[in-house]
């Protein structure tokens, strides 16, 4: 992104008119055997004729026999060979010398719908569609006539007329045959044959024409028809096509022949055929059929020797990570412009509902069907289909995720697991807007396991003590790696006194409270509960804010949260100086670190999330360049997109002289270019 080369200002607007007076009569003649600077405009045209249906034209032009480049002896010899020594009215060359030349047309293209002739006058462009494009080439039919004369002379010179010596021909029997009915295929072959085309051309009579030179008054009169005769706006319709539709009209797509593939059952997948596809298509096909799969199983289905790195790259394009397993993306199962086979619900609504189901499984092992249906508000058949893709029903536990958590994959590919975690955070924020819920509404306890219908108080107390002991042991191991045992107090969970609440009696559940795919959530989306005694940003958080904004200069709240999440994930395991950070605390930290919020006036119909509309910019760094940056922020307080010329004019007005290097630096630091306009980073419309 260098400079104002991305700008594409409009220099001038030109009205375009369509002239139709000569639409069916206008031909373009090309002379490919002669240079463009040697035209035939000044050559005497002796005759002209045309076959309109066949678009066949013949022009007869005089040759300059007095030119020093003309070989007179050769011209006389050619005339003698063609016409002989006798004079007849049908002779080609009446002057006994080759003094004229014939040009015959060949169609350059059969489809002229994309071609037109244009004339420009007084700021208006008038175009007329072409009826044909013809290439005029010299005709050598006179050589055929000379060859015929030669054969006639040779026949005349043969000895005697042998026909006088012949006896009367004997009477011979002939056989009469009736033609068979012509099939359609034979008919198509016949009409495409050379003989048929030659006969068809010969059948159409010639229409003789009068040629008028370029400077002739009649030609000047005809040229006026190249201009649109009526320029009244009420009679001429404006072009209302979109740029993409207009481009498709100018350059229509080439129709490709579709290979007919054998039709088989849609639910049958041949592994032999599958392995002939590219790796990306193999992964996509497998995930569409299986729906949920561990990565190890996927590698087992692919051909031996397949690169695992390439497979990982492909599966991230068509699937999402849920509890260490890969689940096919919703938009792969429900492509755009399709609908539910059960209820007819559009694919876009189905994808949102299924994403909610998958997101719930990133938080806990089991979900309740009624709870899901009450939130996504889709027909029961669709909700059941979502759950059947990734879960199985369990007695007294709702629907449990189909596969056990693949802890080994998460440990081995921590970078991919973290990337997927951040992706789920983005999906979560969109789902919160659509379905109007908060993550805290679904903060799971350990996944419910089957309990006896009647649980005694002693049994309930024993279960709680066992869980507390397990939690204490795991926390104790973590404490030994980073702090002394005296600096931490372990707090046991209180025993629930609700009689109807099922208790978890096993430690097999792999879902971690408040986590996604095994990673702790970096943000608490509440604005009040920050997890610290005072709602004040820590020194470490302020340092991170300063370092980040000195690097990026402009960030949306959503992008800052993403960078902060990456920072949290990059810290050593078990080491966290941020116990719980709310969105409110992040905004306070940004505003306390020489940054200010830029109130960008987004359009009313924007689909950007709330966090994407909160834009913060570095306000003060101690440099002289801060002044230019503030002037830029003032412009973006008035409009969400600006042209470079407006930025240049603002700086020149306020600072007197703004060099190109300063403008380039400021735009590179704070903005991004799109479609000839400049936007603050993170605010380009999707």
From TrEMBL:
Any Pfam family matching the protein: RPC5_C
Gene Ontology CC annotation, any one: RNA polymerase III complex
Domain DNA-directed RNA polymerase III subunit RPC5 C-terminal span(s) in chain numbering: 445-685
Biased composition (Polar residues): 466-478, 511-535
Taxonomic superkingdom: Eukaryota
Annotated stretches, region: Disordered: 148-170, 463-535
Any one GO biological process: tRNA transcription by RNA polymerase III
InterPro entries membership: RNA_pol_III_Rpc5, RPC5_C
Name of the protein: DNA-directed RNA polymerase III subunit RPC5 C-terminal domain-containing protein
């Amino acid at each position: 992104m260098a400079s104002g080369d991305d700008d594409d200002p409009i220099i001038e607007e030109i009205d375009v008119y369509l002239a139709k007076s000569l639409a069916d009569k206008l031909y373009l003649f090309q002379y490919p055997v002669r240079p463009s600077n040697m035209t035939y405009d000044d050559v005497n045209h002796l005759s002209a004729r045309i076959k309109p249906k066949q678009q066949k034209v013949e022009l007869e032009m005089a040759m300059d026999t007095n030119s020093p480049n003309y070989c007179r002896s050769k011209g006389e010899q050619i005339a003698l060979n063609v016409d002989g020594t006798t004079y007849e009215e049908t002779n080609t060359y009446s002057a006994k010398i080759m003094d004229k030349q014939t040009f015959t047309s060949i169609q350059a293209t059969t489809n002229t719908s994309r071609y037109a002739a244009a004339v420009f006058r007084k700021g208006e462009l008038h175009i007329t569609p072409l009826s044909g494009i013809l290439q005029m080439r010299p005709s050598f039919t006179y050589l055929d006539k000379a060859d015929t004369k030669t054969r006639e002379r040779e026949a005349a010179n043969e000895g005697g007329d042998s026909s006088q010596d012949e006896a009367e021909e004997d009477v011979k029997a002939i056989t009469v045959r009736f033609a068979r009915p012509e099939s359609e295929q034979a008919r198509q072959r016949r009409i495409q044959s050379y003989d048929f085309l030659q006969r068809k051309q010969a059948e159409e009579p010639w229409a003789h024409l009068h040629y008028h030179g370029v400077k002739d008054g009649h030609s000047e009169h005809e040229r006026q028809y190249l201009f649109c005769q009526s320029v009244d706006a009420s009679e001429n319709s404006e072009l209302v096509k979109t740029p993409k539709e207009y481009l498709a009209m100018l350059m229509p797509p080439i129709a490709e022949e579709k290979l007919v593939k054998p039709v088989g059952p849609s639910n049958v997948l041949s592994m032999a055929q599958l392995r002939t596809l590219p790796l990306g298509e193999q992964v996509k096909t497998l995930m569409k059929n299986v729906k949920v799969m561990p990565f190890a199983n996927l590698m087992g289905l692919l051909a031996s020797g397949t690169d695992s790195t390439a497979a990982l790259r492909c599966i991230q394009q068509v699937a999402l990570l849920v509890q260490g397993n890969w689940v096919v993306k919703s938009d792969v199962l429900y492509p755009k412009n399709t609908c539910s086979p059960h209820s007819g619900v559009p694919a876009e609504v189905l994808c949102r509902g299924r994403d909610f189901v998958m997101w719930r499984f990133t938080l806990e092992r089991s979900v309740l069907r009624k709870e899901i249906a009450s939130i996504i508000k889709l027909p029961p058949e669709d909700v059941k289909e979502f759950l059947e893709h990734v879960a199985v029903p369990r007695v007294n536990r709702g629907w449990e995720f189909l596969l056990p958590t693949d802890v080994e994959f998460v440990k081995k590919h921590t970078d991919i697991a973290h990337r997927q975690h951040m992706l789920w955070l983005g999906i979560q924020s969109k789902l919160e807007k659509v379905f109007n819920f908060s993550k805290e509404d679904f903060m799971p306890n350990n996944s419910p396991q089957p309990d006896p219908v009647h649980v005694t108080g002693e049994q309930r107390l024993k279960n709680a003590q066992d869980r507390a002991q397990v939690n204490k042991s795991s926390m104790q191991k973590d404490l030994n790696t980073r702090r002394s045992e005296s600096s931490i107090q372990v707090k046991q969970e209180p025993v629930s006194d609700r009689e109807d609440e099922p208790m978890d009696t096993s430690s097999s559940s792999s879902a971690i409270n408040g986590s996604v795919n095994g990673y702790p959530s970096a943000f608490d989306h509440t604005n009040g509960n920050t997890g610290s005694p005072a709602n004040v940003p820590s020194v470490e958080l302020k340092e991170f804010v300063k370092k980040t904004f000195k690097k990026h200069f402009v960030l949306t709240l959503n992008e800052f949260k993403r960078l902060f999440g990456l920072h949290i994930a990059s810290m050593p395991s078990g080491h966290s100086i941020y116990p719980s950070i709310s969105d409110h605390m992040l905004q306070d930290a940004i505003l306390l670190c020489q940054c200010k919020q830029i109130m960008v006036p987004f359009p009313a119909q924007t689909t950007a999330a709330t966090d994407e509309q909160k834009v913060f910019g570095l306000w003060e760094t101690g440099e002289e360049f801060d002044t230019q940056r503030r002037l830029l922020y003032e412009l973006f307080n008035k409009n969400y997109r600006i042209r470079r010329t407006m930025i240049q004019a603002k700086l020149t007005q306020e600072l007197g002289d703004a060099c190109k290097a300063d403008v380039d630096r400021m735009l590179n630091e704070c903005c991004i270019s799109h479609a000839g306009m400049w936007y603050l980073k993170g605010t380009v419309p999707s």
